[in-house]
Amino acid sequence: MPLKYAINPDICLKLTKDKCGTCEEVCPANAIDYTQTEEHITINAGSIIYSPGFTPFDPSKFDNYQYANFPNVITSMEFERILSATGPTMGHVTTFPKLPLNPKKKKDKLLAQKRKDPKKIAWFQCVGSRDINKCDNPYCSSVCCMYAVKEAIIAKEHAGGDLDCSIFYMDMRTPGKEFEKYYENAKDKHGINFIRTKVHSVTENPETHDLNIRYVDDFGQIVDDTYDMIVLSVGLEISEETKALSEKLGIDLTSNGFCKTNSFEPVTSSRDGIYISGVFNNPKDIPDSVLDASAAASAAGDALSSARDTLTKSVEKIEEINVVGERPRIGAFICDCGSNIKGVVDCEAVTEYAKTLPYVEFADESMYACSQDAQSKMVDFIKEKNLNRIVIAACTPKTHEPLFQETLANSGLNKYLFEMTNIRNHNSWVHKNNPDIATQKAKDLVRMAVAKAALAEPLKEEKINVNDSVVVVGGGLAGMTSAKSLATQGYSTHIIEKNNQLGGEAHKLYKTAQGEDVQTQLNELIKEVENNDNITVHCNTTLESADGFVGNFKSTLKSDDKEFELEYGIAVLATGAKAFVPDEYEYGNDERIITSLDLDKMFKVNDTKLDTINSAVFIQCVGSRQPDRPYCSRVCCTHSIDNAIELKKRNPKMNVFIIYRDIRTYGESELLYKEARNLGVIFIRYEVDKKPEVTIKGKNLFIKVTDHVLNMPVEIKTDMLTLATAIVPRKDEKLANFFKVPLNDEGFFIEKHAKLGPAEFATSGVFLAGSGHYPKPVNEAITQGRASASRALTLLAKKDSLFTSGIIANVDPLKCSECGVCVSICPYSAPMFATEGRFEGKAEVNPVLCKGCGLCVASCRSGALHLRGFDTNQIFSQIFALGEVV
Amino acid sequence: MAENNIKIVSFLCNWCSYGAADLAGVSRMEYPADIRVIRIPCSGRMSPKFILSAFREGADAVWVSG
Amino acid sequence: MGNLLEHMGIERDRVHFSWISSAEATKFVDVVKEISEKVRALGPNKKLVKDYN
After folding, report:
1. Does A91 touch chain C (CB under 8 A)?
2. Does the pLDDT of residue B56 top 90, yes or no?
3. For residue A195, which of A227, A169, A216 has the smallest C-alpha distance?
């Protein structure tokens, strides 16, 4: 969907009553066409990716929170807008934010006058989630706890220190990477109150519109309190339209309208060829949606691998004109951007001024320089006037530089013979009340750009040779999935596994949360991987070194004392994590005290001991969410509940207790929590400073814990104690050093971007999947495995058209004094000493590794380093241009 | 140079402050028109020579922002 | 840098360093305003300027 305006045909006066027509008159680009009608387009596609998203829950039907009637009860989505600098209150947190609805109405006007800075704001969690009384959404929406914490922190930042923020919740669910620390900081550093209760109802003081709430606190006391504002943390829902479309597409849905998937193919719908991603595939946050999207692309691509490159059209390449040695002939183009620039800046004057500048051959003003016809005109002018440098004064180069560079290339000019200056974002938009000054500033900016452009040189982009084989380190679920997808799409892939078999930790699991048998599907996957001709499996093998960079890695591998070398272009790190070995709760002193994985093993082999058990206890967060290991291990709540249900099903009379801190069954796993309660599993909450006590007295095993409902200690006699142990990272510093990728405090790999780059590293050509990133269940590990393959494919697929940027550093070897400052200072290890040739010992820059930051250029004492495109003389020319008397 | 017309030569990092300046524009914020922006690829590109040169060329102030 | 310039007679408030992320438009505007105010208080710089005449 392009970011353009559209006419709403239901309201448009021209279309409905044939009146008005003003937009056609005023549009300077003649873009309005009333005759357009709906079109049906048929596209032949081999795969479909279906990402219909969600709608926020509408709380107006809840009479207890009075969202529809009380002006100071708002939804979290509305609050998000209030916090935004571009929102209705410009980021200022105020009461009555929704008003005035109608400035002419007396009542609204009066309310608007009552606007004040709130002193107390409350968030109510689980509105439209985990609720089957007031709505039909039994699932957890997964994202609301985190966004409520975030909104509370930002509200406090905007409003200053004395704003009182309270979050009313049932379980605090922050099981994502770095989320638990964020939650702890919200409590300790930001002073946000967390109150575990469900507020029954809200009433309003009709005079002040303050909101009175009543709830029962942790000690069973009824509390009355008053707040200025209440934010309802609304859940995520699948809309009726999506459900209807899904039915048309023939896709199976769960009872809540989410797509039904298999944990081993988590982005594949029930209909062949349709792949899904996002919240439609279970409620999820941004990083998980991004992973889903990449994974869906990998699945869709796998299915089409035989058809790859059959429909590709290639662009005709225009021969580049050699301008070296020519006197600069600059063409300056001044953009009006409709009225965005022209409304403030006198563009005509700026254009006339540009014509007077040195080396400027030609200057022209255009209404929209980026429009199709302006672009083709530009090509004509370049040819006609024989221009060899181009200056464009318009919007920001960050969005439009590539577009204009393409125009240059189309007219045969090297795309670096170009300079863009920003007279919109940095000028007309921010000085709209000072047109004279803005025009003067625009002239200054154009003069600076012209001065720099005169010194621009054509730059070469070096072709990067990409070795198109891949090494996947780690043969667990994530690694195998990644390798399988890459191999299916035709790339030779090596799996390096240190154990004697593929499969990793998944061998220890019994069932997935959706009830699928893990071993059957795991063995199938192993067989597929082993039989794939494009995959070479190296078991009992470790990686001993890694040198090189994207497209050109080289490693020494060691297998049973034999060493061999491997050259490859891409690396996927899927080294996983392992179970924590507990050092508390008498673990190791009694064979009845086991871990979650031990219990899975008993289920797997159908251990006869299970038949003799009459009472079972689970303790959660063993090794997680405590000061020495502050993160949540994400999978344990669902795992224990799943196992508790299994025990109850085997023996309904068994007493099963789960001793927990917060139950974190996010998404549709919440349904398991509900099922466990229905089956009679008893849940007892504990606080981290009051951990349960385990004692072995003769033949008996006792667990003492303070019950949160009775507020009294209870002692449970049990036949089995399962410890839900943390998942700990392998903290493989050696591997991290090989590929120059970072580890966080706990030892998990740090991805390129926490939200937008969860399956790749900042180091180009190195990708990430599985629990080495963060603890995750089977389906999420597989999704990330696919996602890493998909990200790697974006590099592999364009291996013949991969070029370095032209903006890189280079060395003048005659000036280089071999001091080595550039070699030691570069964060990307791009400069190094030449080891052979005429300039042996002098520094040289590897164009593939250089990111063009210029750090080495600034540090070079001999003046031997130059940054192409931002060379010292170019920056000086801008400074000088500024100094010239106008 | 007129008394009320000062010039602040501003070296802005392409990835950070330059982006912030773009966003300030998108958000239609207003600020004094005294700055003249020179886009640099990274604040690491900065050299003391540029600051001295700017003053020599008559800048009233220099601002470097990463 | 500040010391050197001060030695040459250029006031500290004429050189500013800051770090602003690309999302912090408000901070950007605040910093511009702050610098502008300080420099306006100092008036035009006359030291070190190359004499074109």
Report:
1. yes
2. no
3. A169
Contact A858 B38 (CB under 8 A): no
- Domains of chain C, by residue range, sit at 2-42
Q: Which of residues A800, A823, A838 is at a domain's end?
A: A800
Digit-coded pLDDT (tens) for A768-797:
999 999 999 999 999 999 999 999 999 998
Convert the pLDDT of each residue in A787-835 to its tens digit: 999 999 999 988 777 788 889 999 999 999 999 999 999 888 889 999 8
Alpha-carbon distance A839 to A303, whole Å? 51
- Do A606 and A516 sit in the same domain of this protein? no
Which structural domain range is residue A233 located in? 55-237
- pLDDT at position C53 is 46
pLDDT at B2: 42
Cα gap B65→B46, rounded to integer Å: 10
**Cross-chain CB nearest to A853 (options B22, B45, B56):** B45
Q: Clarify whether residues A338 and A437 are in a common domain.
A: yes
Sign of CA dihedral A479, A484, A489, A495: positive
The answer to whether residue A149 is domain-embedded is yes
Q: Which residues contact A508 (CB under 8 A, 6 or more apart)?
A: A579, A597, A600, A601
A355-to-A383, A417, A714, B37 alpha-carbon distances in Å: 18, 18, 88, 22
Is there a domain that residue A310 lies in? no
- Which residue range is the domain that position B19 belongs to? 8-65
Does A439 lie in the same domain as A360? yes
Residue by residue, DSSP assigns A306-369 as GGTTSS--PPPPPPPPP-TTSPP-EEEEEE-TTTTTTTTS-HHHHHHHHHTSTTEEEEEEES-T
Residue A504 sits in the same domain as residue A571: yes
Q: How far apart are CA A228 and CA A73, in angstroms?
A: 9
Q: Which residues of B touch A858 (CB under 8 A)?
A: 44-47
In A785-881, where do the E strands start and end?
Answer: 809-811, 831-833, 843-845, 865-867
Q: pLDDT at residue B3 above 70?
A: no
Option in A85, A883, A885 nearest C25 (CB): A85
Q: What is the pLDDT of residues A618-652, one digit of tens each?
A: 999 999 999 999 999 999 999 999 999 999 999 99
| φ, ψ dihedrals at A445, nearest 5° | -65, -40
CATH code of the domain covering residue A165: 3.50.50.60
The SS3 of residue B34 is coil
Which one, of A403, A360, A362, lies nearest residue A384 by Cα? A362
* Pairing state between β A552-559 and A562-568: antiparallel
Among candidates A426, A853, A855 on the partner chain, residue whose Cβ is nearest the Cβ of B25: A426
Residue in A426, A431, A459, A877 to test binding to B, most B beta-carbons within 10 Å: A426
Q: Which of B45, C31, C28 is nearest to A871 (CA)?
A: B45
Q: Which two tokens stand for residue A185?
A: 């900081």
Do the Cβ atoms of A481 and A783 come closer than 8 Å? no
Contact between A281 and A267 (Cβ < 8 Å) = yes
Cβ neighbour number for residue A446 with a 10 Å cutoff: 26
Residue A671, min C-alpha distance to chain B (Å): 43
**Hey, how many other C-beta atoms are within 10 angstroms of the C-beta on A819?**
14
Please indicate, yes or no, whether residues A793 and A879 belong to a single structural domain of this protein.
no
- Decide which of A682, A700, A727 is a domain's last residue: A727
Question: Could you identify the residue written with the tokens 């409902």?
Answer: A709
Q: Given a cut of 90, is residue A91 above it in pLDDT?
A: no
Domain-located, residue A48: no
A738 domain residue, yes or no:
yes
Reply yes or no on whether the pLDDT at A507 is more than 80: yes
Of the candidates A66, A234, A63, A53, the residue with the CA atom closest to the CA atom of residue A151: A234
Q: Which residues, including other chains, have CB under 8 Å from residue A36's CB and lie 6 or more apart? A: none
